[in-house]
Amino acid sequence: MNTAATWPNLVTMFFDQAERRGDAPFLWRKTEGQWRSTSWREAAAQVASLAASLKALGILPGDRVVLVSENRPEWCIADLGIMAAGAITVPTYVTNTERDHVHILENSGARAAIVSTAKLAKTLLPAVYRSNSCTTVIGIEPLRIGQSSSAQLHDWPKLLAANPGDVAATRAAAARIKRSDLACLIYTSGTGGAPRGVKQHHGAILLNCEGCLDIIENDFTKDEPETFLSFLPTSHAYEHSAGQYLPIALGGEIYYAESLEKLAANIEETHPTIMVVVPRLFEVLRQRMAKTIEKQGGLAAKLLDQALRLGRKKYDNGHRLALWDRPLDLLLERTIRRKVATRFGGRLKAMVAGGAPLNPEVGIFFYSLGVTLLQGYGQTESGPVISCNRPSANIKMHSVGRPLKGVEVRIADDGEICVRGELVMHGYWQNDEESARVLKDGWLHTGDIGHIDEDGHIVITDRKKDIIVNDKGDNVAPQRVEGMLTLQPEILQAMVHGDRRPHLVGLVVPDPEWAGEWAAANGRDADMAALCADPAFHRAVMAAVDRVNTQLSVIEKVRRITLADAAFSVENEMMTPSLKIRRHVIRQAYGAKLDALYG
Fold first, then answer.
1. Which positions ≥6 away from 549 have C-beta within 8 Å?
2. Residue 91 and residue 101 in contact, taking contact as beta carbons nearer than 8 Å
């Protein structure tokens, strides 16, 4: 059998594993209160049928196909089917607006789109009808559209039934796809605001799988099969590689969580061995668990206190405990840690956190309770995983671990982290200028500042780029939102804030001329300081922000604002001579006010 190091492409990897696993369960979803599976053999047949269907619809090798869907078995089958046809998957977020879809359709030149539900089609179809290239839309569920327009609409079940695929022939055809061939275009926000299509080739994702397999095989006991619970968007590069293709490389099973609200129950039901997560999940779980135990009081609260005390001591002492601490540690293992393990399904080996920085205190909390939490690091431009902590190398909560197998990392003279290897993208789609800026002599310049410690762990200390990474790992380009805000007559200047936070908030400088007119119309003194303290004035400015919010995706919306004491200027050092805002200076002045908006 091939391995991640020798498979020529992702499709061949899947068909090899499907032949080996046969009728064993592969993809799970909960319907009518019961978990039901699609076997490897059934999935292979559906992948072959979709590939045949796309070819019958005129999709050619190299064509782009947009995929708009929530996490579900058909997402995986569609992704593999597109690639098996020789085409390129273009995943998009279910939160995308019509404008976002227009940009991605036009920029990618997509020939077709697959959409899961009628609800998601409401924002996709108007964009398709405005597109110059997309002529085919496939609905996984009935789209309930009154009539067709410039694009032909197709029903997934009928289409696959009409084009039964030959697995052996499809597998043989897919074997011609090379590791260097483009697998997908994953759009990620750039500093200029317009999402850029990252060109991920098959080898980039396969190298990620190989590096992760190396950790699993050398640091964990083996389970057959490994079980994953998928809840992060598969359109995100992290879940796409680590939550979909890694399980395939392992011959594992993927359960699709019903929702975030039902995640805790789904964990207990599905007994995952590995979960791909974002730090925000742990912050929420930590709060809930601590509150639950505090309410119980008595012995439960005392056990938690002792677990946290001993966990901190063990972590600070290089993951070792003194002889006299071991009896208490054994008691904790049989009481509170056993209960926590049950809450996490009873089989969990590790939760791997990526997409946003992890607060070390949150990591130590779970470490103290016996939950193995591994922080990793990566970017869409690198497949995306660059590094990860591993238990055998003494987990460091302040670091993002050592580089994966096959990944080179060096620190530039200015402290920037640079990466080289097969995992590095082949550039941005139709954006040579931006590609040349980040790819130099084979090295990906990440835009992150850090160093490599004495144990070879990468420690990230700052970010050169201005991209905001929220607590769920979503990227938001602040300039784009700020530019839209300052187009409003009420707003002179604005800065949005939300790194590692659940949503964006904003600092707004009201337009002086508009403020004067508002004051006159509302019988107020035109003094700006007095106006900024006036709740009615604040609501009027927020109304302008809300107008902009109607044009933004969920992750871009500005939920609350505070008003600045004075305009940003070169004189107060809040702007550069070229009139770009100095974010670090503004945060120093207004950080407390912005943080208070999350209270």
1. 557, 558
2. no
Q: Rounded to whole angstroms, how far apart are CA atoms 301 and 322?
A: 24
Phi, psi of 466 (to 5 degrees): -95, 0
What is the chain's length?
Answer: 599
Q: What is the CATH number of domain 477-596?
A: 3.30.300.30
Could you count the other beta carbons within 10 Å of the beta carbon of residue 166? 14
Query: 3-class DSSP state for residue 527?
Result: coil
For residue 240, the surrounding DSSP H or E stretch is none
Bond from prior residue into 272 cis (ω within 30 degrees of 0): no
Among residues 501, 497, 506, 591, which one has the least CA distance to residue 548? 506
Cβ partners under 8 Å of residue 295, min gap 6: none
Domain boundaries, the chain: 10-177, 477-596
With tokens 């303290």, the residue in question is 533
Could you check whether the bond before residue 384 is cis, i.e. omega within 30 degrees of 0? yes
d(CA 550, CA 544): 10
Tell how far CA 522 is from the center of its chain.
Answer: 46
370-405 confidence digits (pLDDT tens): 988 899 999 999 999 999 999 887 788 889 999 999
Q: How many angstroms separate the CA atoms of 494 and 586, rounded?
A: 11
Q: For the chain, how long is the longest CA-to-CA vector?
A: 80
116 vs 71: CA distance, rounded Å? 10
Q: Does domain 10-177 have CATH number 3.40.50.11540?
A: no
How far is Cα 91 from Cα 236, in angstroms, rounded to an integer? 8
How many H helices and E strands in the chain? 22, 26
Taking the C-alpha atoms of residue 355 and residue 358, their distance in angstroms, rounded to an integer, is 9
| Joined tokens for residue 157 | 């079940």
| pLDDT attached to residue 357 | 72
Which of 231, 81, 217, 258 lies closest to 156, judged by CA?
Answer: 81
Q: How far apart are CA 272 and CA 310, in angstroms?
A: 27
Scored b (16 or more CB within 10 A) or e, 33-54 reads: eeeebbbbbbbbbbbbbbbbbb
Cα(256)–Cα(259) distance, rounded to whole angstroms? 9
Residue 3 identity (one-letter amino acid): T
Helix (H) or strand (E) holding 422: none
The per-residue pLDDT for range 245-270, each reduced to its tens digit, is 999 999 999 999 999 889 989 999 99
Q: Per-residue pLDDT tens for 280-293?
A: 777 778 777 877 88
Residue type, 405: K
Q: Which residues of 476-487 are buried (b: 16+ CB within 10 A; e: fewer)?
A: bbbbbbbebbbe
d(CA 533, CA 552): 28
Edge-to-edge strands, sheet with 88-92: 152-155, 136-139, 112-115, 64-68, 88-92, 182-188, 196-201
Amino acid letter at 225?
P
